[in-house]
Specification:
Elements lengths: L1 H39 L3 E6 L2 E6 L1 E3 L2 E3 L2 E3 L13 E7 L6 H14 L3 E7 L21 E3 L2 H15 L10 E5 L5 E6 L4 H27 L1
Parallel strand pairs: 6-7, 7-8
Antiparallel strand pairs: 1-2, 2-5, 3-4, 6-9, 9-10
Length: about 220
Amino acid sequence: MFFNIIRFLFHKKVMFIVVAFCLVFTNCSDDKQDVANKDDKKDLYIFTSNADKFAIEIKENGNEIQIPIINETTKNNILDGRNDAKILAIFPQDCSMCIPTLIHLSNLASRTRGLKVVVLSQSMINTKVYKDFLPQSSPRFPNLIASNKDFEFFIDSVKRALNIEIKDFKSPLFLLIDNNNNVVRSYEGAILEEIFEKDVSEILSSVQLEDSDINKEQKQ
């Protein structure tokens, strides 16, 4: 009788351990699935230009932040360009400093080979306002438009990803992106053309050095 009781209790203990293990394993699997599902979810911000749609994503690549702008028709990232520096100009509504700064960017881009500029805004920039101040050779920048809600969410995500504090939401925000599509610097407000030129030149100079090193290796 005593041994039967011991045997019964032993089986009960084994069953309890098995059930507990199954519950823990199931919860771990669910947690892993939740993490996987979270990783699969992407925060995409839809911008448009004429009939084209562009999906913008803020991606963390190790310690780097990238902001690809994908044309949903061609699936191309319009910021791609291994030999290029890029400036993402983010213009909020009722921005009094945006047009004057855009004039400086236009002047810089007109004389800087390898510089791409993309403007993000909530409404189309009226180029007639500043075209008289520009040289004839000034390039036209892509101007992508988002709804007020998407634009605000995008700004907030950029701020959190780059760990920056935006002091004035009616001031322009500029992101400098290198030839590897990594955001290397942010600027807020009215920025002097000379500052842009210095930072862009550093990126383009590093590209030339990389190309020179590659050519030397190929010749050896």
